[in-house]
Specification:
heterotrimer; A alpha/beta; B mainly alpha; C mainly alpha; A: alpha/beta; D-Maltodextrin-Binding Protein, domain 2; 2 domains; nine-stranded mixed sheet; 23% strand; B: mainly alpha; two-stranded antiparallel ribbon; 13 helices; 2 strands; Phosphate_ABC_transporter (chain A); Phos-bd (chain A); signal (chain A); Phosphate-binding protein (chain A); PBP_domain (chain A)
Amino acid sequence: MKKVNKGIILASMMAILLILTGCQSKSSQKNSVTIVGSTALQPLVEKAAADYQVKNSGVDITVQGGGSGTGLSQVQQGAVSIGNSDVFAEQQDGIDAKKVVDHKVAVVGMAPVVNQDVPIKNISMANLRKVFTGKITNWKQLGGPDQKIVVINRAQGSGIRKSFERVVLKGQPALNAQEQDSNGTVQKIVQATPGSISYLSFSYFNNQIKHLAIDGVQPNAKNVENNRWKIWSYEHMYTKPNASAATNNFIKYMKSEKVQKNLVSDLGYISIHDMKVELTSDDQVIPIKGAEE
Amino acid sequence: MDAVKKELTRKSKASRQDQRGKLISLACVTLIMLVVLSILYMITSKGLATFFENKMSIVDFFTKQVWNPSAKPQALVGALPMIVGSFSVTVLSALLAAPFAIATAIFMVDIAGKRGRKILQPVIELLVGIPSVVYGFIGLTVVVPFTRTVFGGTGFGILSGTFVLFVMVLPTVTSMYVDSLKAVPQFYREASLALGATRWQTIYKVIIRASIPGLLTAIIFGMARAFGEALAVQMVIGNASILPSDLVSPASTLTSVLTTGIGNTVLGTLPNNALWSLALVLLLMSLVFNLLTRFIGKKGAF
Amino acid sequence: MNAKRVDKIATAVIYLLVGIVILILVALLGFILITGLPHVTWSFLTSPASAFNAGGGIGDQLFNSFYLLFLTLLISFPISLGAGIYLAEYAKKNRVTEAIRITIEVLSSLPSVVVGLFGFLLFVVQFKLGFSIISGAIALTFFNLPLLTRNIENSLNGVSNLQREAGLSLGLSRWKTVTKVVVPAALPGIITGIILSAGRVFGEAAALIFTAGQSAPVLNYANWNPFSGDSPLNIFRPAETLAVHIWKINTEGIMPDASQVSAGASAVLIIAVLVFNLGARWAGNYVYRRITASK
């Protein structure tokens, strides 16, 4: 009796405590910035937030994952201050792009990767399309050994898949194949599965998997900047139009020379300042005026 | 006289205590039911929205094989491959795990004696605490190549999923069954042995029979874990929404599709609602399993 | 004669199956410990994690895992104990009770991401608790309730009726009998339930990503004021647990030593679970001896 009662009293006390402090924390929300969304962008923002808080101790920044869709829907509802996304708000179902403000904070390049045992270094865009639409199913057809191609696609609706299909598939339906959600998992599966092919962000290249050049163009930052390498996209941070000062200051910091020059390239992204072309939300690539200076 | 009557009809201290106790425990059950019902309500309302708000066909959902809820102009929500995938891995892993779990539990309670149990129990319970991701990666580096060399194919498929789930389900089933075996009164065993039954006869005819309800609960919770598991299965099953034709070709489960998709969709849209429909199917299927197991249990118990 | 042979064969089969299970257990644990332990150093256990440089540790995550477990049990144990008592001792054996049982069991098959999302929408967004340990603990409570309740109910049912009769015949109320006689007698089974659910709390990732969050703010272990932002005891701070950290570095980690950190963290997690299990069982047995007449 005593034991059970104690437990219940404890639980109810906690509930009261919870409500009390819940009210408290609401009043101090002014200087707190909550960031939710894209797991791919998370390491960059987390590191930047940690650096930022060292100098601005009055601001409390929380960075969480949850996926681009979650980030966009939560910022649209005003539940969080910033929503991280790999895709344009215009391209996400159920998001009214007019209700949110886009801040592009980095550019990410993606490239096809294959298992070590595949003796191919270069692939043409047309052949790459045929592999991912299921028209080429054996490495023999691409000049390799007689081995089945194991295609590992990315999750439906994910930012990286949208970017890849926009450039490579050009509207053709993708082969119904294995799908994996995260860069890390794809990296490990490609590493472990003979004859496999998938695609990854540049940051996840390592020496246990092989990345392919397309039509002789190597996947690297230089080629992305002038759009010779075509598979790339932005990392976005979305806010409400009437975002708090703390939020805007942090966004400003993300776009500053300091973050873009060091942190962004350290993590394998490409600085937005270095881009000589711009990608619009309706998939047009246009040169940026005066980008050469 | 009245004083005596009052004294007699008044509730005793013990009775008041009992009432209060009953109230407290009833409150706990009510709280749990409240939580359960609110989750169920959320899943049901969101899951049904696919059919009522987005006007997708329920028949197509259960019979079509193409899953592409964000396709334009006509979204495709055929969940059959996932339903078959989930069903197969759950049943297969439970079937595979049950004999091992029963044997291990019997070994721990009735054969090995105290020391064997003392060593085995913590080790088995340890397995519950290993995160699914770790199981997934061990599956990827050990189980998938194993299946590939022994059974052919790419190694990704229902078979690999079954092997991984088997290990994940085993500790839950075993430890829960150990407790029900311990709850079988000692005099059952003594009576049976006194009648001249061998150890196996005692185990098979008396102990297992007496613990059937506990065994079923254990298996239900094991299957529940298998059903709800996402991360580990997702890595080894291949996660391709294709109707599986054999055990070694890539397939997918309800949970793996749900988990990969949920972060990329926006609440209230069709692609998101369709995922909640998968969760609803999951619920209904585990309900069916549950009822089925109970039904079988009622027949088997004495 | 025949029965004896069957007995021998059956015993052999049991030994074989158990042998295979032990083999799997040893191989699995050996694999994790052998790949992980070489990376476990004192500084790995105490230093904070690093976003993309090599050499990050798991100090905060380890603390968070235990703290979250403590909070979760604090919430879920009393509730499921009460519910278990009701189902085992008070509930009438009718269809309603059966329906309650089935509903609770069905809840346990929900994928953790659904529970996580439910917790996110309700606690993080609706109740404005934010990404916090307390949101995570409540979400994990949902998870634990079915297993714990059923386990407690089964353990209570396992206690011989003689015990109840003895209690009642001494003039104790039913409630007193349950709490003073039956629950103590059922303690070993209850402990198993706690250990199993604790294991799930330690290993859970998907439900926590949306509730407790996946970032660990810098903690100041000298600050024991639970209302201060950087205090480790603050229940309103986001808290990444060890399992979430392993998940994160495996899926999106880009530090050069990601696989080593992951292997080391897995080994540490296993040891933490082992320590907790042995500790819980030891404490349970100690209490059991103190409050019951058994030796």
